[in-house]
Amino acid sequence: MNIHCCQHPVNRENKNMDTTIAHTIDTAVEKYAGKQDALLSVLHEIQKTQGSISEEAAHYVSRKLELPVSQVFSAVSFYRAFSLEPRGKHHLRVCTGTSCYLHNSEKIFERLCRELNIAGEGVTEDRQFSLEKVRCIGCCNAGPVMTVDEQIYEGISVEKIPALPRQEIFEEMTHKKATEIIKKYREEK
To answer: Which residue blocks in 87-148 are alpha helix, DSSP H?
Structure first.
């Protein structure tokens, strides 16, 4: 019996992996090959285009970058920018860092949970929205802060989270409409 001990994962075929994901990974690996931050850059590309990093994608990245699969999963689990679970079409993040927490970010999060009809961090049934708490967005002087996709909104209050029925606010909403609604409520402050 031959037993091999190595750092690299077994060379899986990834027969079930979507060709679009493989193409995304191949393109990103080619773009960032040889760079010190290649792993994180490739993972960002996958997250941005696919909405999550599947186990198959992690194994494929491991093989393509010649890294131990444990290193890939360590990066995915350490950084909040990455997710093993699919996120909604629009991703909402509420800062719960010290400054934002002291400015009632927890109440904002609870209100969003009610508006989205989810029990906490997670994804809506229609997969339009995902909601999560983050420790810091980096705008501590303007709290409480939240993001809709990559757009940062400062000085949010519970009153500014729309109280309209879910279907009017959240279903089939485009990013532009979400941005306009939040901007409108911010201006009414």
So the answer is: 98-102, 105-116
Q: Pinpoint the alpha helices (H) of 117-170.
A: 166-169
* CB 91 within 8 Å of CB 73: no
Structure pTM?
Answer: 0.59
Would you call 53 exposed, middle or buried from its count of C-beta atoms within 10 A (0-12, 13-18, 19+)?
Answer: buried
Q: What is the pLDDT of residues 58-81, one digit of tens each?
A: 999 999 999 999 999 999 998 877
Whether the bond between 144 and the residue before it is cis, its omega within 30 degrees of 0, is yes
74 close to 43: Cβ distance less than 8 angstroms:
no
Domains observed in the chain: 19-78 (no CATH), 90-187 (3.40.30.10)
For 135-171, write each residue's pLDDT tens digit.
Answer: 888 888 988 998 887 778 888 888 877 643 343 444 4
Q: 8: Cβ–Cβ under 8 A, 6 or more apart, which residues?
A: 62, 63, 66, 67, 68, 69
User: CA 160, CA 184: separation in Å to the nearest integer?
Assistant: 9
Q: 106-132 burial, b if ≥16 CB within 10 A, otherwise e?
A: eebbebbbebbebeeebbbeeebbbbb
Dihedral class, residue 145 (left if φ above 0, else alpha if ψ from -120 to 50, else beta): beta
